[in-house]
Amino acid sequence: xxxxxxxxxxxxxxxxxxxxxxxxxxxxxxxxxxxxxxxxxxxxxxxxxxxxxxxxxxxxxxxxxxxxxxxxxxxxxxxxxxxxxxxxxxxxxxxxxxxxxxxxxxxxxxxxxxxxxxxxxxxxxxxxxxxxxxxxxxxxxxxxxxxxxxxxxxxxxxxxxxxxxxxxxxxxxxxxxxxxxxxxxxxxxxxxxxxxxxxxxxxxxxxxxxxxxxxxxxxxxxxxxxxxxxxxxxxxxxxxxxxxxxxxxxxxxxxxxxxxxxxxxxxxxxxxxxxxxxxxxxxxxxxxxxxxxxxxxxxxxxxxxxxxxxxxxxxxxxxxxxxxxxxxxxxxxxxxxxxxxxxxxxxxxxxxxxxxxxxxxxxxxxxxxxxxxxxxxxxxxxxxxxxxxxxxxxxxxxxxxxxxxxxxxxxxxxxxxxxxxxxxxxxxxxxxxxxxxxxxxxxxxxxxxxxxxxx
Length: 455
Prior knowledge:
Layout: E1 6-7, E2 17-19, H1 43-46, H2 52-59, E3 64-66, H3 69-75, E4 83-85, H4 87-93, E5 98-103, H5 114-126, E6 131-136, H6 140-151, E7 155-161, H7 162-167, H8 169-177, E8 181-185, H9 191-199, H10 207-220, E9 224-226, H11 233-253, E10 259-263, H12 268-282, E11 289-295, H13 300-303, E12 305-310, E13 319-324, H14 346-353, E14 358-362, H15 364-378, H16 384-403, E15 408-413, H17 421-428, H18 439-447
């Protein structure tokens, strides 16, 4: 049908493998380093935090990695996720462009995050782990891991960034409904948290600090492992199910993207939609313009340095080469809590360094304006994080209108905003401030980067 709005795949079309872009890159990713020796780390260095199956995926260069059947069985509850043609938005913008969006808000937790939470819980359960610790910004990841923990009978402890803990009580309630324990970070339960509170009693927290607390808890107990919702290779790998499905759905539509837009915080939903298409390009397929959209208040890709840095504020993690604002950088408390991370996924950073993508940064008020326009045309209320991708896609469609070009735009609508209504209330009341980071704080954080190594 020429006027089709949604493209649906049968459950039998759920991909049987995840796609690993490491197999197709023209240059390998820089290895993670031990912070003491500055030498590449091995599997044993990661074993206190992750089960060996995930460590194997973290370093794999195989193109296709099999999705275990128990994981695919859980995926069937919401996958394949729908692909929509944004026809009403196109009309409102008076653009010749075709806009498609993959909608990940159909998952039980309301975002793309269960795509990796479920396999992480599965592999930990298989390894005999009893308990998982993690961090969360806006609560999308925390609620997703809580959901997965309930399915596989794992205890889950979530350190939620304090500003989001206060801003988003319903996400916290969802985690507790699934059976998880949610703690505001910084907390008094870890050395990292206590140190931060001693320095600043009203500390609003950051993802880097919450990671430190969760890693510290995992390292202290043999029955506990750490789970991460973004940044690492195995997390990005699990999200590629999004792009693989989108490729099949666009084939149904007889279309292929000219531009792919994704919002970026740690990089997982962006990688999920982009990597399968980029892999096709790297293997000789059609060139696709790739646009990452990040918050202007935490612009790791557009303002960060590509350097080795800690993934956490408390310096408990290995050093990874990424676009970073510095591990001690604390971004202001804007509403897109899932994007408040000082660094970008090493694999996304590597692709940026190879010149295979570009990045833009927007303030939150313009992103909420785009999200409201999207809701009033397409009917879906995006999460504050997803609004960045909506804004990027709208700008691309307006460019097509101005240039008289009929391009195909694809973006990932990574989650709904049903638990983010306070943010929208603040926007309509004129209370939403376009927060900027402190230039002096950024300079200080970047000055504190670990000494660059030859590795």
